[in-house]
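As practice, study what follows.
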Amino acid sequence: NGIIENYKELKEKLIEANYTFVSQTDTEVIVHLFEYHLSKTNDASLAFNKTISELEGAYSILLITKYDPNRIFFIMHGSPLAIAKQDDNIYFA
């Protein structure tokens, strides 16, 4: 959720790296950027951190990946994100 202000520059970089986009949304850039960094590092946590370091704007992100299925990656930067825990359940909104 939010706005990635530098999505056009990131999208151009990813297109040059042979990534294909199926929508016009700025949020699709986040997923492809994560995949790009994951292919370079083979480490989901490092790839997520590298992805976040390149984003400009206000956003909340929650990412789940099959490469690290026991973790949920999330960040809030200028856009709301609520996290709640009840018993063994965690809720994000």
